[in-house]
Amino acid sequence: MKQKIDIKDGKTKLFFTSDFHLFHKNVLRFDNRPFKNVGDMHEEIINKWNHVVGENDVVYYLGDLTFAKAHEISEVNRILDEFNGKIHFIIGNHDDDKVIRKFNRFETINDYVELKVTHNDNGVVVDTLVCLFHYPIYSWNKAHYGSIHLHGHSHGNLHHGEDASYYVNRRVIDVGCMLTDYQPIIFEEVYKKLISVIIKK
After folding, report:
1. C-beta of residue 83 within 8 angstroms of C-beta of residue 53
2. Distance from C-alpha of 18 to C-alpha of 104, rounded to nearest angstrom
3. In Å, what is the CA distance from 88 to each residue of 37, 62, 115, 144, 172?
4. For a tag on the chain, would you pick the N or C end, based on fewer CB atoms within 10 A?
5. What CATH code is carried by the domain that includes residue 34?
6. For the chain, what is the mean pLDDT?
């Protein structure tokens, strides 16, 4: 799916995140998440989301939303309603497509998105192609022509650090929430991290 967004005027901010794993008790241990229980995690995720995302901003969520059972779905709806902004959803391996569509909270739902972002780079307006997929992929469209790849799924296990230093010259980064203090990461920060990694080489 091809999509585009213009953020050069600064009126709309663009964010990315993934892998909340709502109602997944074991993820607290797997990721060593700093929460007492899933309820504590849910409320902290809401607070951190709304601390950076405004009503007119756009968030691309890159999969693995919830492990909720049927009787917990209403709570997931409540959490989604609490989030600011417009949310585009990319399906993860733990997401049931039918359940995700029933939430009726997402602008679009896709397996894969190629997002053309029009933005400012040191005062120059440029277009950057951002390839969004739940899984990390070895190569992606226009990888050798300046495009970047954002993914979730790996919980930081591919590079062992949110600065993406493992991915020198790869233009790829894991946007899993556990790597960004459980709040969405803004496009400009992603862009700066990946470009700075290339410059260091």
Report:
1. yes
2. 18
3. 27, 9, 11, 26, 20
4. C
5. 3.60.21.10
6. 90
The pLDDT score that the predictor gives to residue 199 is 47
pTM: 0.91
Over residues 162-186, the pLDDT tens digits come to 554 555 556 888 999 999 999 999 9
How crowded is the C-beta side of 129, counted as CA atoms within 13 Å? 13
d(CA 32, CA 94): 19
Q: Considering its fold, how many domains does the chain have in total?
A: 1
Are 159 and 137 spatial neighbours (Cβ–Cβ below 8 Å)? no
Task: Give Cα separations from 124 to 57, 157, 186 (angstroms).
Answer: 22, 35, 19
CA gap 126, 135 in Å, rounded: 26
Which alpha helices (DSSP H) does the chain contain, by range? Answer: 25-30, 38-52, 73-82, 97-102, 187-200
Coil, strand, or helix at residue 28?
A: helix
What would you report as the CA-atom Rg of the chain, rounded to the nearest whole angstrom?
16
Question: 112 and 139 in contact (C-beta within 8 Å)?
Answer: no
Q: Tell me the residue range of the domain where 190 lies.
A: 2-200
pLDDT of residue 159: 60
